[in-house]
Amino acid sequence: MSGAAMARAIDLEAVRYELSARIAAIDVRAPYLGCGEVAVAVDEIRHIAHHAGLNPTVTVAHFIEAALARGERGAVHGWLSMLRDAVGADRQDVAACDAFAAACSVRLAA
C-alpha cells in the first residue's frame, strides 16, 4: 500500500469513528429530540459521509431523512442501527448502495 493510500485509509478510519460516535450520540438523545433535530444530526452525518465517499451511509441517511420529513419517528433506534452498519460497510459501490436501499425500504415500511 502506498503512503497516500495508507493516509487515505487512516483518514477513512477516523471518519468512520467520528460518524459512529455521532450516531451513538443521536441514539442516546433521540427520545428527547424532535424529528427536525434528529434530521439535522443525520444530515450532518450524510454530508461527512458524502465527502468521505461512504456511499451506503449516504443512501441510508437519505432514507432516514425522508422518513423523518414524513413525521415518522417510531423506529429511530433501528434506523440508526442500519446507519451504523452502513458506516462500517466494506463496499462502497452501487450494488452495496442498492442492498442498503432495499434493506431500508423493508425496515422503514415495517
Summarize the structure.
The protein is mostly helical and 110 residues long. The chain has helices at residues 3-29, 35-52, 55-69, 76-87, 94-109.
Describe the structure.
The chain is an all-alpha fold and 110 residues long. The longest helix is centred in the first third of the chain and has 27 residues, at 3-29. It is built from five helices and no strands. The N and C termini lie far apart (43 Å). It has helices at residues 3-29, 35-52, 55-69, 76-87, 94-109.
Summary tags:
single chain; mainly alpha; 5 helices; 0% strand
What Rg do the Cα atoms give? 14 Å
* Total beta strands: 0
Portion of residues in beta strands equals under 5%
In N-to-C order, the SSE pattern is: HHHHH
Q: Specify the overall morphology.
A: globular
State the share of residues found in helices, binned by percent: over 70%
Secondary-structure content class: mainly alpha
Supply the number of helical segments: 5
Distance from N terminus to C terminus (CA atoms, Å) equals 43 Å
Uncertain runs are none
Described by strand count, sense and barrel closure, the largest sheet is: none
Average of the residue pLDDT scores? 89
